[in-house]
Amino acid sequence: MDIVDFSTNHPGEEFQIPAVFPTDTGLRVAFKAPMEYRQAVLRSFDDARLTYDVLHTDNQSILIQYEMPLIPPPIRAILDSGNLITLQFPLTLRNGWITIDLTTSHERLSQLKAEFEDTGFTYEVVSVIQSTQPTDILTDRQQQFMLEALQRGYYDSPRQCTLTGLAAELDVGKSTASRVLHDAEERVVKEFFTEPIE
Question: Is residue 108 classed as helix, strand or coil in its secondary structure?
């Protein structure tokens, strides 16, 4: 199933891509559609003979996870330019166009442009906003966790706060605290080392 074509066939309706995950064999995609399209969506997946799971349904929407054997050109361009981690989900799909927001460096933005042009993928830049705030690369939640970790001495040497203690202060499980911090740290490190060092 081509979700872009599905969107084109239902003009004016908004669909969402809450997440994408590269795998060893292709791409795992989450696709969210209004509940009124449930039967049409499932029929399209069945006709395409794709492996999928219905993750959630309620009165408003249906959420499906499916496997793509090949990574489509736009996602391949994002991966190859190192911008997957900077994507802000969910992506919006309307009238055959995927709208993405990302916070990235000039270098990675130029790489993404070059990748799009190499694949012949049609794209349009709606706006570019330059920021000098390093925290703009983090989500609000990542900023909250990192600030709490800094204030409690988690990054001090020796540490003044354990991961367990930090998780308790944030009222989350230890694994959640670890994952959010790791994702934030990855963004900060990659941002730092993709910028020119004076």
Answer: helix
CA distances for 104 relative to 15, 24, 76, 101, 141, angstroms: 25, 26, 17, 10, 18
Nearest alpha carbon to residue 85 among 100, 104, 67, 65: 104
Tokens of 98: 């995927």
Give dist(CA 28, CA 43) in Å, integer. Answer: 19
Residue 18: asked if its preceding bond is cis (omega within 30°), the reply is no
DSSP-derived 3-state class of residue 86: helix
pTM strictly above 0.85: no
Cβ neighbors of 157 (< 8 A, separation 6 or more) are none
Average pLDDT, 10 consecutive residues per value, the chain (198 residues): 85 92 87 94 88 92 90 80 77 90 78 84 79 67 89 89 92 90 84 54
Q: Are strands 61-68 and 27-34 parallel, antiparallel or unpaired?
A: antiparallel
pLDDT of residue 114: 87
